[in-house]
């Protein structure tokens, strides 16, 4: 596994290639402070604790993971996010759309390193091209991973030549970031999880001859990230998932 170093301040590249809008966004995100608790309620915390008690004497400790929300400016000046379609041979979430990322390793000094290291392994994105500007509050995955979204700016899109790892990634594409706040090309469905009926959002996106559906944890994270970036709520009822850890 390769190690990586996350950047946390403006670079010469950002000053040379970044538009005034993107530079202002980077500065805004560097000032972002996530809530003390992630946006999940106490009821499901109790349920998770009850599940842990059933597993006694083994204590369930969620493993850490991080995903990279890599943003860049498109040719039309719109903000876009890099996404992947997972390989159909994977044992979990095969063929689904996801953000680059994965589980933390012992040598990772922070979530930014985890996210950029995994992005390099999955899609060939050099960590030196990504300016990490913000860490959002953690999310709990269905496999009980504590997933931290890491927001990074790709100042020079032309310097990135996707090289998907075929064992993990089937395709690399990008989508308009603002679409995750809009009610267009979106549908929702109630799905029961851990005894709760949750509202899941499905975003349909077509690029070229390829049709993608973005849903589950990925859509939840992107809705939250877009809310933070654009500083406005989505144009639909979000109904955040009912899970939370105290003392994150």
UniProtKB/TrEMBL annotation:
The species this protein was found in: Camelina sativa (False flax)
Cofactors that this protein relies on: Mg(2+); Mn(2+)
Matches recorded under CDD domains: NUDIX_CoAse_Nudt7
UniProt keywords, alphabetically: Hydrolase, Magnesium, Manganese, Metal-binding
Domain Nudix hydrolase: 62-218
Protein name: Nudix hydrolase 22, chloroplastic-like isoform X2
């Amino acid at each position: 596994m390769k190690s990586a170093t996350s950047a946390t301040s403006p670079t010469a590249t950002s000053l040379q290639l970044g538009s005034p809008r993107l530079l202002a966004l980077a500065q805004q995100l560097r000032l972002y402070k996530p809530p003390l608790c992630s946006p999940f309620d106490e009821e499901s915390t109790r349920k998770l604790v009850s599940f842990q008690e059933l597993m006694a004497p083994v204590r369930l400790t969620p493993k850490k993971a991080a995903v990279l929300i890599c943003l860049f400016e498109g040719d039309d000046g719109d903000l876009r996010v890099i996404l992947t379609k997972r390989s159909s041979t994977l044992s979990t979430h095969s063929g689904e759309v996801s953000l680059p990322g994965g589980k933390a390793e012992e040598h990772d000094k922070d979530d930014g390193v985890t996210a950029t290291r995994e992005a390099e392994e999955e899609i060939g994105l050099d960590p030196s091209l990504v300016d990490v500007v913000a860490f959002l509050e953690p999310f709990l995955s269905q496999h009980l991973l504590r997933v931290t979204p890491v927001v990074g700016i790709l100042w020079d899109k032309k310097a990135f030549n996707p090289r998907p790892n075929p064992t993990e990634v089937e395709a690399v594409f990008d989508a308009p970031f603002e679409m995750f706040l809009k009610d267009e090309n979106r549908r929702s469905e109630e799905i029961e999880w851990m005894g709760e009926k949750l509202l899941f959002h499905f975003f349909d996106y077509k690029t070229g001859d390829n049709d993608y559906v973005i849903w589950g944890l990925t859509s939840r994270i992107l809705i939250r990230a877009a809310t933070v970036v654009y500083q406005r709520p989505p144009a639909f009822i979000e109904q955040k998932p009912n899970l939370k850890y105290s003392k994150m």
